[in-house]
Write a structure and sequence with these properties.
about 350 residues; alpha/beta; five-stranded mixed sheet; binds 5'-O-[(R)-(carboxyoxy)(hydroxy)phosphoryl]adenosine
């Protein structure tokens, strides 16, 4: 068998990541996260691209070194072409294109969201695990996207439902900000929620037909509840932060699961997966497992390390595109918005 070595590069938001995959097996995955955004309560695009510039060379060098290969051994370079922050994407895409020119290797472009889905197929020697069978449904929930994806094969995916406004992660992050908690809010809300009563507060839920999501109403109802309660008791948030977090988390999980269950019933596909940063959430994972235990579906939940942005998933997606000889012209530009 011919050796296929893919170098993957991810720089769509605030993580600079590089990974090496050999014949579909992960050799290395190195990520430099950016702490600079914490003081601002969200990712600052200009600061993110500057940090990517500083991190990209050492991150790629370390990934190559850890994999025990030379750059010349690489068969192709796969990079996230979009969606994401344009300034951030440009750093990774330009770096990948430069490598392709200097090594005379093809470029493989990866849609970041498809990368998240294919994180389920990342295998490591000695740690092999069962992977979802095609076709399966994947709930993709990240900071910028909430989608139900019908995955027909590695390279053939269809969006069944998507958010018409805010994403689940973005909503949790914003509500965390309203409460004066840190960024990113997801892990903080998750931790607090474990100590709170999920039924203490009722927030509004969307009534959207079909499989699309909406979270802007929930965000507004959370903000109005806080404003009203704080005007009566300035210590309201401090006194109730665990219950607020648990109630918010329950609402988000219920909204996500309701549509997913509906899609499972409609399609008859009982193999489901979850992907993206929000899939690290404890209540969401529990909801997946409990439906699995009751025999409703077979669930695939990725390891924590592959829920957030990483280049291993980009290299993996690049590997399958490489097998299809699906290469990308060097003059193809990065794109910031979701491409369906
Ligand atoms: O996939 P990701 O790393 O980046 C994007 O591509 O957007 O997702 C980041 C999102 C953030 O909104 C973050 O707050 C959320 O994932 N997140 C969580 C948890 N860990 C990360 N949300 C809920 N519970 C968590 N444990």
């Amino acid at each position: 068998m011919q050796d296929i070595i893919i170098l993957g590069i991810e720089s769509s938001c605030d993580d600079t990541s590089a990974a090496v995959i050999h014949n579909g097996c992960l050799l290395s995955n190195v990520t430099a996260s950016q702490q600079v955004h914490e003081d601002y309560g969200g990712v600052v695009p200009e600061l993110a691209s500057r940090a990517h510039q500083q991190n990209i060379l050492p991150t790629v060098s370390e990934a190559v070194k850890k994999a025990g290969i030379e750059l010349e051994d690489v068969s192709a370079v796969a990079c996230t072409l979009g969606p994401g922050l344009m300034g951030s994407l440009l750093v990774g895409v330009s770096f990948a294109k430069g490598l392709c020119v200097s090594l005379s290797r093809p470029l493989v472009s990866v849609n970041h969201l498809q990368g998240h889905v294919l994180a389920h197929f990342i295998q490591q020697k000695g740690k092999e695990h069962e992977v979802p069978e095609f076709p399966f449904l994947c709930l993709l929930v990240s900071g910028g996207n909430s989608q139900i994806v019908l995955v027909k094969s590695y390279n053939d995916m269809e969006i069944v439902g998507k958010t018409i406004d805010d994403a689940a992660g973005e909503t949790i992050d914003k509500c965390s900000k309203f409460m004066g908690l840190g960024y990113p809010g997801g892990p903080i809300i998750d931790k607090l929620a474990r100590l709170g009563n999920p039924n203490a507060f009722i927030f509004s839920k969307p009534h959207i037909k079909g499989y699309d999501y909406s979270f802007s109403g929930l965000k507004t109802s959370f903000l109005y509840k806080l404003r009203e309660a704080v005007s009566e008791d300035p210590d309201f948030i401090e006194k109730n932060k665990e219950d607020l977090a648990a109630s918010l988390e329950r609402t988000v999980v219920e909204v996500l699961m309701d549509k997913l269950v509906k899609a499972v019933k409609k399609t008859g596909i009982r193999c489901v997966a979850v992907a993206g940063g929000v899939s690290a959430n404890t209540a969401l994972r529990n909801a997946f497992v409990s439906r699995c235990d009751s025999g409703f579906w077979k669930a695939f939940i990725p390891p924590f390390s592959y829920t957030t942005d990483n280049a291993a998933m980009i290299a993996m997606a690049g590997y399958y595109k490489y097998l299809n000889k699906d290469f990308c012209s060097l003059d193809t530009p990065a794109f910031s918005r979701v491409k369906v």
